[in-house]
Amino acid sequence: xxxxxxxxxxxxxxxxxxxxxxxxxxxxxxxxxxxxxxxxxxxxxxxxxxxxxxxxxxxxxxxxxxxxxxxxxxxxxxxxxxxxxxxxxxxxxxxxxxxxxxxxxxxxxxx
Amino acid sequence: xxxxxxxxxxxxxxxxxxxxxxxxxxxxxxxxxxxxxxxxxxxxxxxxxxxxxxxxxxxxxxxxxxxxxxxxxxxxxxxxxxxxxxxxxxxxxxxxxxxxxxxxxxxxxxxxxxxxxxxxxxxxxxxxxxxxxx
Lengths: 111, 134
Hints:
The complex is a heterodimer of chains A (111) and B (134). By secondary structure, chain A is mainly α. Helix content of chain A is 82%, strand content 0%. In chain A, helix 1 (2-26) packs antiparallel against helix 2 and helix 2 runs antiparallel to helix 3 (60-89). In chain B, helix 1 runs antiparallel to helix 2 (48-71) and helix 2 (48-71) runs antiparallel to helix 3 (75-100). At the A-B interface, helix 1, helix 2 and helix 3 of A face helix 2, helix 3 and helix 4 of B.
C-alpha cells in the first residue's frame, strides 16, 4: 500500500517536472519562464521526495527526503525572487504582450 | 552592468519550429515509454520498468534545461535555467537512490540543493551589478 502511494507521488512529480521544463523552453519571456518553471519544478521535486519517503519508510533515508522537501520549500522561492529582481534591474524588457509592470512604477515613485 | 540586455523577450517561434519541437518531443516520449533502454547499474528489484522510465524522463527534463542554457537570449535566462537544472538534479538523485539500493545518493541531493541555492543567489547578485560582499 505504501509502495503504491509512493509510486503515484513519484509519477505525479515527474509530470510536474516535465511540464515545468517544457514551460522553461516554450514561454516567450524570462518572467513567464520563471513563473512556470520555478513553481512546477519545485512542487514536482517535493512530490518525488515524498514518494521516496513513502517507499523507504521511517528510517534515515526517508527522513533525509523529508529534509530535502523542507529545504526546497524554504529556499526555492527566495532564489526565484532574487533572480526575477536581478533580471528586472539588469534591464531585461518585458514581453510585448505584458500588460502591467508594478515594479517599474514603484521604482519611479522612489526617485 | 546596467546595459540594455538582449531583445527582451521578443523571440519569435515560427510554425515549422513549433511542429518540429512537438514531433521531436513525441518521438522521445514514445521511445522512453515503449522501448525503454537498459540502465546497467540498476539492480533487479521490483518496479524496475517504472524506474527506468523515470530515469529517462528526468534526463529529458535536464536536456530541456540545457537547451535553455545554450540558447537563452539574455544572461538572466541562463541563470534561471541553471537554478531549475539544480532542482531537477536533486530529484534525479532521489530517483537513483531507490533502484540502485545505495541510499547515499540522497546525501548528494542534500548537498546539491544547498550549493544550487547559494549559486543562484550569487548569480542574482552578480546580475544586479553588485559585489558579493554588499
